[in-house]
Amino acid sequence: MLITFEGIDGAGKSTQIAKLVHFLTNEGVDVLTLREPGGTPAAEKIRAILLDNAHKVTPVGELLLFSASRAELVQEVIKPALQEGKTVILDRFFDSTTAYQGYGRGIDLVLLQSVISIATCGITPDITFYLDLAPEEALKRKFAKSSIPLAFEREELDRMERSGVEFYQKVRHGYLEILRQNPDRFVSFDALQPVGTLHQQITATLKERSLF
Ligand code: TYD
To answer: Closest Cα to atom 14, ligand 1: which residue?
Structure first.
């Protein structure tokens, strides 16, 4: 079983994943949690290139690097874990590529789809939880955690996060398009809801669909 989480940076995926792992483990489910990009030694090195502010990366370069990291993780970790009957919970998968590199950076969606197919070997999540949040709210959340004045905040942001609010608006629009095109797999929740309410909605959805 493959469960993925999607949403713009700051939507609260990590918090919900931690709560879900705790819940499923208590239910006796054998869970493996992973995040993209990264997850194998080679993929972690690719992650460092992708997020490092010292590099400029072109949109196509970005697509191929995210896909290279994914190919490593799928072959080395995800495929074997699914074959062993584990429940894999993934913080981002190919929908991030469609939203960020496709809708965000403007790469042709048909070309992008073939790169995704190569990297994933056709593996598709059983369910994807999308936490919907406006980019302005995501920024507020990020800045609320820090006492450093706003002007210096940018120093804290990684290469992707420096792409700006307009980029994130395109990414969010992309996610909403993916939702429209995949109404069965893609389950959307308002990320502004309290953490506990969101967790209950996520576990209720899994129960309803007999996914654990
Ligand atoms: P990360 O620090 O893991 O962010 P988050 O906690 O929000 O998941 O950084 C991953 C960044 O890479 C994030 O900005 C989303 C972006 N990304 C893509 O642009 N394309 C992709 O295919 C993936 C997997 C991530």
So the answer is: 160
